[in-house]
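Predict fold of TrmB family transcription regulator; 263 aa.
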Amino acid sequence: MSPDTSDDARAVAIEQLEQFGLSTYAARTFVALVGLGTGTAKDVSRVADVPRTRVYDAVDELRGHGLVDVQQSTPKEFWAISAETTGGKVEREWRHRTAVLTEALDEIEPIERRDEQRGVWTVSGRETVTDRVLEFVENAEDRIVYMTVGELLTEDVVDALEAAAGRGVAIELAGVSPDVQDRIQREVPDAELFESLWMWSDTPAGRLMMVDGETTLVSVLVDGENGRPSTPESETAIWGSGESNSLVVVLRAIFTWRLNDAE
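Predicted 3D structure, encoded as tokens:
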């Protein structure tokens, strides 16, 4: 590993540890100890840009997370747990925090969340739009009509569609290339592929979805050449739910040709 590559790896590791809640000094100290194997406060201070007096505070923080052991020698020696063990601890902590957060939010949320969401809501960013699509697919009970371009039909969306089909939800899909159609037929064999009334690939449209006739989402791809996104943030969507929601009413009328054909 070249010095530049090693420096990049250290910077990435420090940044990620900070994201998981460690202080900057603790993150620098831990990464330094991983590189050293074992070391004293003087050793850490020399390689980690941490004042020697602050190394002891950082080690106390790391010990609280179970990331560092201390040898009671003179001077004290510090030892960091392995990268694999660290990853496992962080992953378990993340899962625990996610479970606690979900449980707390479940207690706050009304017992019966309103199906009717007044108005039309805006979502920006491809990842966030995908999250909303996944939520709608996972909550589907009867039918999903989904038009999209192949680049947005990611593996997690395909997996969600496959799971929905396994629950008995009817899946109808359009707008994708022949290669993507072949993939869908392999992974979601119960999905019905249909031709849209317009050339989906010739527009900046990203996704058009109707779930159970009551939840809809429409997205567009912006700021990219020929309507294709230049960054993952260049997708914007609007969505609504409820039989009387204005967006649902309009899209249900647009989808009438499809809904009637499939019945």
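Residues 47 and 262 are 67 Å apart (CA to CA).
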